[in-house]
């Protein structure tokens, strides 16, 4: 219906309602007389009719979409009708010198009832009887609190979303068997699978913003027993700020199932270290380095230097930060290789950073087994170059991004990270710069993570390849890892190795199973194939060795390891004789050195 036709129809309908209301009220009060044929009735009818259309236009009663009518529209009707009646009473007093209060009161009640009924009946009819063209999916909402109620109301109001809520699941015993917005609270989370089957549910929507990670993991486990698609409602803060609609759901991510709450940071101490300062990040184009840059910029440094070897990756993070922060922060992209000692010294001498976050490294375990010289050249000698430049030019704090693979390493990559820790510990003994290292486990979404590989295998139809059914790893998200690096820098006194309490390790095969389910497939459809442990891999990783553990946290969920600096002479021997050593000798040497075992090569040389 066009707007003009709609306006005409509503105007005629309202005119009939106004006339009916006034004549019914007069006949109710004077059933035996002919008062409705008098000039009183004529004056009242004309006045009420004109004033109604005037106030109806003021409160836009002819412009509202009544199929979505709610309390706000009802209030507008009451205001328009009340002002119309008041206007009529004033005209009666002025012209007739008398106000027919009882007649006007009855007319007011009839007026509100008939106008409101005519409008809201269309919404009721539409919601109950008109079938929308969109095929609606039946949805079960997990959580009958404020967020779940908001979600249900939005979905009930907006049939175009294509989702029809049919009930709630909530673990609160006080809500069981109640109805919210006409929808039943069916039971607790143990009834998810049965409810999905009984009510033919297509989608499960988790709507509990305060849900802990362990609870999320448990509830997702119940949901994964069904064939329904599991989704998560967006954050309430984003909905309230208008960033997203309440019905813009997202898929459950692997990060939601880590089973560990994020570490709360000491914002004041980080801000004190970063705000207004000059910060240099090596490996700034990498997954961790780029996220460190993003986190640093939140604290408004005066200048940030993005140093990396890859031209394209540095270009991307440079453009991203400049688009986000405009001219608030001076952002300087530097193309440099940490193996180029003269270039690194030139950069640090020129910009004299207050803090260096050293994230540049080779991290791929099997690849470094085949290229031990490159691993040492980059992870050990490159770190030495940056660290000694920091020492030479008086950098305040140097933070090395290390790895849990540095503990009792069986591979070249882990060994080089441990030796890099030794290098900075050795420098810390006589330097004014505070040198510290940060160890954490696997980072979800990084370039070396198993997640991108698993996703690619799932998209290709499988199977997903896992090295061993008992292989376990610690996991954390990239933002969390990067925030830990910043926190470590603010806690640094010099020489420490900071470690995050990463909760329980995760079986890689369980991670693969969850990712398959999150992608909408069953384990049987995709399949999991065990390929065998790759060169240099361990069945499980440790964050601290037996001799390194401090029982007390220096910060909530952050520990300091007592990594002992030993075999300084052997570290120096590796650096001095690196060019003369074969790849095989280097591989044997660094693994023995990192594990504090006696090196035959070093003994023979001495």
If helices are DSSP runs of H or I spanning 4 or more residues, what is the number of helices? 22
Average pLDDT figure:
80
Q: Which value, in Å, is the CA radius of gyration?
A: 35 Å
Question: Could you name the CATH homologous superfamily of the largest domain?
Answer: NAD(P)-binding Rossmann-like Domain
* Strand segment count: 21
- Specify the helix fraction band: 40-55%
Shape: elongated
Assembly type of the chains comes to: single chain
- Major β-sheet profile: 8 strands, mixed
CATH class of the largest domain: Alpha Beta
Tally the structural domains: 3
CATH fold description of the largest domain: Rossmann fold
Describe the strand arrangement of the main beta sheet, using strand numbers.
Answer: 10-9-8-11-12-13-18-21
Beta fraction? 5-15%
Give the N-to-C terminal Cα separation.
97 Å
Structural class call reads alpha/beta
Would you mind describing this structure in some detail?
The protein is of the alpha/beta class. The protein contains 22 helices and 21 strands. The longest helix has 29 residues, at 101-129. The chain is elongated, with a radius of gyration of 35 Å. The relative contact order is 0.07.
Layout of strands and helices, then pairs:
Layout: H1 3-29, H2 39-58, H3 71-96, H4 101-129, E1 137-142, H5 146-157, E2 163-169, E3 179-180, E4 183-187, H6 192-198, E5 203-206, H7 213-223, E6 229-232, H8 236-240, E7 250-251, H9 267-274, E8 278-282, H10 287-297, E9 303-308, H11 311-325, E10 330-335, H12 341-351, E11 355-358, H13 365-370, H14 372-392, E12 397-401, H15 412-428, E13 434-439, E14 442-444, H16 450-459, E15 464-466, E16 472-473, E17 475-477, H17 478-491, E18 497-500, E19 506-507, H18 508-518, H19 523-526, E20 528-530, E21 558-561, H20 568-577, H21 583-594, H22 600-605
